[in-house]
């Protein structure tokens, strides 16, 4: 699902008057499947509803102190995870996701033949995975090329900077111009507000 027969994502976005300048200034950003799907999913959970700086600090502590594997997260003491900066709720989420990876409820290989909507429905059945986290999974775990996470604050800020403060519904409509490469467009929108 990462390769597309419709052309080059960078050429497609370079031709867009709004995103073209960001493609030129930031180069060819890539959307690729994660080498470690569980660790990348944990990163998304840690990033939920936090500023970039806060999330990065917590992420660094978690990855420095723990083995970020399903068994490693299940074996870690709750107090130690809390000391690394996870809220009680995020400890529960990470552990439930670890169990889901362990028992096959979350299985990146199984998702290969499923469309994005079906993957989101499957993922959001797991406690701790909402629409935003599921879309991050599509983009950063599976490497899907056409995901537009309008729930993301950075995406909404990027859209507001480019399009004079549209509503979420208008953002979704405006992003249609970037199909089938909305994941790539999202990378450039994040860069627009970095």
Structure description:
- There is one protein chain.
- The chain is an all-alpha fold and 194 residues long.
- It has two domains: 9-31 and 147-193, Endonuclease Iii, domain 2; 37-141, Endonuclease III, domain 1, CATH 1.10.340.30.
- 60% of the residues lie in helices and 0% in strands.
- It has twelve helices and no strands.
- Helix 8 (116-123) crosses helix 9 (131-141).
Quick rundown:
With 194 residues, the chain is mainly α. The protein is 60% helix and 0% strand. The chain has twelve helices and no strands.
Features:
globular, 194 residues, 60% helix, single chain, Endonuclease III, domain 1, Endonuclease Iii, domain 2, 12 helices, disordered N terminus, 2 domains, mainly alpha
- Could you give the count of β-strands? 0
Strand content: under 5%
Helical segment tally? 12
Q: Give the overall form.
A: globular
Class of secondary structure makeup: mainly alpha
The averaged pLDDT comes out at 93
CATH architectural arrangement of the largest domain: Orthogonal Bundle
* CATH top level assignment of the largest domain: Mainly Alpha
The figure for the number of domains is 2
DSSP helix fraction: 55-70%
Write the H/E string, N to C: HHHHHHHHHHHH
Q: Radius of gyration, rounded?
A: 17 Å
Unreliable stretches covering 5 or more consecutive residues = 1-5
CATH topology of the largest domain: Endonuclease III, domain 1
**How widely separated are the two ends?**
28 Å
* CATH H-level homologous superfamily name of the largest domain: Hypothetical protein, domain 2
């Amino acid at each position: 699902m990462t390769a597309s027969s419709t052309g080059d994502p960078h050429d497609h976005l370079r031709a867009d008057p709004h995103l073209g300048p960001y493609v030129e200034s930031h180069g060819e950003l890539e959307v690729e499947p994660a080498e470690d799907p569980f660790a990348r999913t944990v990163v998304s959970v840690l990033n939920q509803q936090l500023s970039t700086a806060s999330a990065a600090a917590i992420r660094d502590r978690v990855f420095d102190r723990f083995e970020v594997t399903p068994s490693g997260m299940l074996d870690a003491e709750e107090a130690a995870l809390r000391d690394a900066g996870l809220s009680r709720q995020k400890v529960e989420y990470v552990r439930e996701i670890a169990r889901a990876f362990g028992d096959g409820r979350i299985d990146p290989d199984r998702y290969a033949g499923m469309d994005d909507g079906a993957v989101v429905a499957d993922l959001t059945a797991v406690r701790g995975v909402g629409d935003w986290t599921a879309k991050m999974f599509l983009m950063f775990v599976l490497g899907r090329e056409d995901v537009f996470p309008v729930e993301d604050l950075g995406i909404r800020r990027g859209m507001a900077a480019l399009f004079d403060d549209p509503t979420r519904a208008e953002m979704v409509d405006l992003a249609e111009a970037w199909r089938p490469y909305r994941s790539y467009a999202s990378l450039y929108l994040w860069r627009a507000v970095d």
